[in-house]
């Protein structure tokens, strides 16, 4: 539920927590809006309530103009490794793979469920009376 404080500040109720969203500064008290430079769900609720376009609140790094500018220059291919000039100190260095210790026991085959994913298991029924709630 969105409660406007003024034109740019909103109090968004998320379950039993209140989140403060400031649309002009692109901030939310959950901090996801600031970190990801994308509106969090609280900010999206406030943006929808204010009837503003969602694209105005995305960070510039996600906009097409930034991507075009990043790749506008020439990208030169890397030559063959035999043509590289490697400093003498680096040439004698040997890089070993990271140490790996296998877990004890049989490897797990069951995959981890993603967030929000749940299995719809079958309800068990009694083999005698056929009703659910118990299995014997």
**Helix share bin:** 10-25%
Please give the oligomerization state of what you see: single chain
The helix-strand sequence is EEEEHHHH
Largest sheet: 4 strands, antiparallel
Given as residue ranges, the uncertain stretches (5+ residues, pLDDT < 50) are: none
The geometry reads as: flat
What's the total helix number?
4
Number of strands: 4
How far apart the termini lie comes to 46 Å
Rg result: 28 Å
List the strand order in the largest sheet.
Answer: 1-2-3-4
Protein structure class: alpha+beta
The percent range for strand residues is 5-15%
Q: Whole-number average pLDDT?
A: 89
GO molecular function: zinc ion binding
Keywords: Metal-binding, Zinc, Zinc-finger
Pfam families: SWIM (PF04434)
Protein name: SWIM-type domain-containing protein
Structure write-up:
It is a single chain. The model has no long low-confidence stretch (mean pLDDT 89). With 136 residues, this protein is an alpha+beta fold. 19% of the residues lie in helices and 12% in strands. A 4-stranded antiparallel beta sheet has the order 1-2-3-4. It contains 4 helices and 4 strands; from the N terminus they run ββββαααα. The protein has a domain at 2-62. GO terms for molecular function: zinc ion binding. This is SWIM-type domain-containing protein. It holds the Pfam family SWIM.
